Amino acid sequence: MRKVLLPTIIIIGTILLVLRLFYLQIIDDTFKLKSENNAIKIQYDYPERGYIYDRHGKLLVANQPSYDIMVIPREIKKDIDIDEFCHLLHITRKDYDRILEKAITFSPRLPSVFLPQLNKAEYAAFQEKIRKFPGFYIQKRSLRDYQVKFGANIFGFITQASEKTILKNPYYKSGDLLGKQGVEESYENILRGVKGVKYIQKDKFNREIGSYKNGMYDTIAVQGEDINLTIDATLQEYGEQLMINKRGGIVALEPKTGEILALVTAPSYDPAILVGRQRSRNYTALYNDSIAKPLYDRGLLAEYPPGSPFKILTALIGLQEGVIDEQSSFVCHHGFSYARGRFMRCHCHGGAQQLHRGIYESCNTYFASTYMKTINKYVRPADGVDVWSRHLRSFGLGEFMGYDLPTGRRGKAPTSKTYKRIYPNGGWRSTAIVSNAIGQGEVLMTPIQLANMMAAVANRGYYYTPHIIKKIEGQKIDKKFTTKHMTTVDRKYFEPVVAGLFDVYNLGTAHALRVEGIDICGKTGTAENYAKINGKRVKLQDHSIFVAFAPKDNPKIALAVFVENGYWGARWAGPIASLMIEKYLRGKISRVDLEKRMLEGSLQSEYDKYTGKKETDTLLLKPTAPKVIDSSEIEN
Amino acid sequence: MKNQSVTNNLDWMSVIIYGLVVVMGWLNIYSSSLSTVENSVVFDLGTFYGRQLMFILFTIPLIFMTLAVDGKFYEKFSVILYGVALLALAGLFVFGKTVKGQANWYSFGGFGIQPAEFAKAATALALAKYLSDVQVNLKDTHRQMQALGIIFLPMLLIAPHDPGSALIYTIFMVVLYREGLPPWYLWTGFIAAALFMLALIFEPWVVILIGLAGIAFMYMKTRLVDRNLIASGIVLVLISGFVFSVDYVFDNVFKQHHRDRFNILLGKEVDMRGIGYNTNQSEIAIGSGGWFGKGFLEGTQTKGGFVPEQHTDYIFTTVGEEWGFLGSLVVIALFLGLIFRIIYLAERQKTKFSRVYGYCVASILFMHFFVNIAMVVGIFPTIGVPLPFFSYGGSGLWGFTILLFIFLKMDANKVNEW
């Protein structure tokens, strides 16, 4: 049997080799990646980002060249003069060590950004000495150059792709820039273009020995496309000025098309501060401001109880459901007693209220009665709520609506399920949810939803999905923005409601805000809100709300204005809305005193009252819908 | 009497496999040393592939000479050839030319010759001659020592310059076993090698505990009457002494680059740009091949010259990268085919001399094949051993060619044996 030993050794040895080969070549694919990393150098050619224009073709956002210092750690020579290097770039030795360590952690072989976004002077100084610092090189990119000081929330900003993004989307490599928030994010693929790639074969000394496979895989950069926004730059700028020292949002739409004319959030910031070397510090400052939240687009994200403007929907749904007509009347005793011990106060002039006066005097009793009749039309209140909720959804409530901006909130259009959660044992009736009638209760709306509701009213029964894109060079805009959405309320029921809204200005809560020669239809609103301060539920100053469209016939603009803690509707939101309308339709302002008061007015003292200034961190200023109905105190 | 011509009795199967391996080897040398910058002719003595082509062409007259020599010549002159080989190896200490830290070359004009590559054939002949003597019985301790001496003499002469080639000689132990060497030699060698590796990985006392457990197991298994406590104790002392001396030898006798090679294998060394570079790069190159490889002349690692010594000891990385797992299997299959063919031929030899020689040839080829590829794929320490017929180098190619064709001549000549 001595013959068998050698063949056995041979076979065992060979099996070992084959298994090892199988592991290396088939199972473990880290080697494959490593091979591509060290033999091929990839060079990118970044195209310029597309420009952004407003609806009239005014240039809002352009580009400027920027220079990043890149580093390939393993190519750094040991004997470079680090002090001189730091001095040139105005960084400390500590920074140098920290950044380099980070780069090495990422990869010693691959380039990472050492210092982003140098300005021209820094670039020139460094460029002269760059040959002294092997391992570092300069990558040219284009940065945003903002032509205006407003619209930060609309544009968004440009930032380096995060590691998460790089993992998720193979297009982005470390150090690549991409748009975040605003149109920079939603139209990223169009604005950014496609970067060009050059593969270069290298040898072990890292010398480039020519193009890889004769450039078979190389691609040419594709320029980013320019886009036109639906924004009216003048109106946007004016809106932002009006909102200085206030918090809240303005959303203005063109009812006939759904185009967003202005999208204001306050407080905001100059978009230019998020460009260049200071970007990261400024961004951190904005990000950490948890009280004023300048990065939080209130026009899209803030879910407020809509307050009185919601009465428009209550009326429309009541008419559509046939529970009221124009002549139905309810007697108001300066309040509405809907259950034992439950009383909803009302500030109207009292007496028998019909639809028309109910709207312009904003009578709580009238709308509470209408709402209860709507719900009670069905045997089970749950069915009534669901019918009502379906009507709300046809106006865009309780959904994201599908506009072309990357952030948004659904708001809330409660259904029977909502109340099943609140009252798990059932037994609830229309009286339990009656505060919905006046836009308190469980209903929540974002300003853009309010504006969209007004657009639907202005159009007497339809709306287009709000959108911010007007034109993309060489492309059509998304078809969903040109599709008409019909509401579930018939056209004929809108006229009496519109007539009531018109008289809000003539006879009602906004009569002081009339603009000579412009027929405005509007509705004031005041919403209660509460916040938890140090664990206690505290009632804060009411929000000031105003919704409007104009002119009454053939409307050109519909808008919603929301001013946080602005006392009541006609105090801040109403005047701002009327100024916006005048500015947009006329181009100039006739009521200079009012304009001055609004521009200079400040609610800062009001905000400071709640934040206590010093213990700012303990407060979460999140508007919450009141659940205690009998304390509802609704003005206007 | 049958036809006595060599061509009719030559084992053509071996010759064809030999030819295939040589051609594949050249293609891979061509790929690994082809410069991307210039487009030069194939027969260019300034390049590795050009010179290798010349070496290959020169094997043709070499083969004819080897086959033309009288069949009895090798047996008769084996002792003389062995003596010449020993002298040549010894002469390296005086006249050797140092190339890459190894003084194992004789320089003749522009070309160098490595005597170690030819000494293997001479040692095989001498061993075959010694064992074929009717008086030699390997059960005899005296004979065992003589046989081992034949192996260890050239091995000791080579070891200082070229530990890789010296390692190859250990495979002769298997040949001796085939011819009657008691198995405990192999066991001792195997256990010593295992203990050596264990001692490097674990603390000494762990290894001694393992040894103790092994001895206890053996002790319990043997019949009661045969139990020998003293012998077991001696074995334990030997094991302990060996384990501690391994640490001592490793730390004090080995040179740093030897230590490093073991450390890489054991995963202790992480500096992939320093000493770990070779193994890491060769694993990357092979690993990047996948199932089918990147195609001839398409290997990015090969083109980039990342693998050191790729045309010589690391030539298999080119196979792995450009021909993939399947291509590697083909090369392995060819080697396996050749080695088993030789074993088959050896076993049917009529004389003990040619049988032992054939066995030696198969063993040497396998040892080279295994150690080389194992090193390249990272399961064996980095040690300079060429892949037979494949790696770049005239001495290696000619040495293996002579080694193989001497046996094929013997095989073809067997009809003349009675």
UniProtKB/TrEMBL annotation, chain A:
It is a single-pass membrane protein. InterPro entries: Beta-lactam/transpept (IPR050515), Beta-lactam/transpept-like (IPR012338), PBP_dimer (IPR005311), PBP_dimer_sf (IPR036138), PCN-bd_Tpept (IPR001460), Penicillin-binding_protein_2 (IPR017790). Pfam families: PBP_dimer (PF03717), Transpeptidase (PF00905). The keyword Transmembrane helix applies. It is found in: Cell membrane; Membrane. The keyword Transmembrane applies. It comes from Flavobacterium caeni. This is Penicillin-binding protein 2. Residues 46-210 form the Penicillin-binding protein dimerisation domain. Keywords: Carboxypeptidase, Cell inner membrane, Cell membrane, Cell shape, Cell wall biogenesis/degradation, Hydrolase, Membrane, Peptidoglycan synthesis, Protease, Transmembrane, Transmembrane helix. GO terms for cellular component: plasma membrane. One of its GO terms (molecular function) is peptidoglycan L,D-transpeptidase activity. GO terms for biological process: cell wall organization; peptidoglycan biosynthetic process; proteolysis; regulation of cell shape. Residues 248-578 form the Penicillin-binding protein transpeptidase domain.
Automatic annotation (TrEMBL), chain B:
One of its GO terms (biological process) is cell division. This is Rod shape determining protein RodA. It comes from Flavobacterium caeni. Keywords: Cell shape, Membrane, Transmembrane, Transmembrane helix. The chain crosses the membrane at residues 12-29, 49-67, 79-99, 148-172, 184-217, 229-250, 323-344, 356-383, 389-408. It is found in: Membrane. GO terms for molecular function: lipid-linked peptidoglycan transporter activity. It is a multi-pass membrane protein. InterPro entries: FtsW/RodA. The keyword Membrane applies. NCBIfam families: RodA_shape. Its main location: membrane. Pfam families: FTSW_RODA_SPOVE. Coiled coil: none annotated. One of its GO terms (cellular component) is cell division site.
